[in-house]
Specification:
The protein is of the alpha+beta class. It has one domain (9-73). It contains one helix and five strands; from the N terminus they run βββββα. Strand 2 and strand 3 (31-35) form a beta hairpin. It is globular, with a radius of gyration of 14 Å. It starts with 8 loop residues before the first strand and ends with a helix.
């Protein structure tokens, strides 16, 4: 298994807590950061984690799920 075109991911500290974000690029080349986990029912509101470790653990679960889903499509 090889990961290609993996987006840049960061864990950023905000006043309310830690947020996991990935870098997104528009069709005309502008790059910006967007959260990968949102508050239930509110897509534009990021989910804040209390600690950086919790944010990293949840990001690992998120990407692991994407890898499992991608693997199931090609088998």
């Amino acid at each position: 298994m090889h990961l290609v075109n993996m987006p840049k991911v960061r864990v950023q500290k905000y006043s309310k807590g830690w947020v996991v974000e990935r870098q997104v690029k528009t069709w005309y080349g502008r790059k910006y950061w967007k959260h990968i986990e949102a508050v239930s029912g509110i897509d534009n509101q990021p989910w804040y984690y209390k600690t950086m470790d919790c944010a990293v653990d949840e990001a690992k679960k998120h990407f692991a799920w994407d890898l499992y889903q991608g693997h199931a499509r090609y088998t």
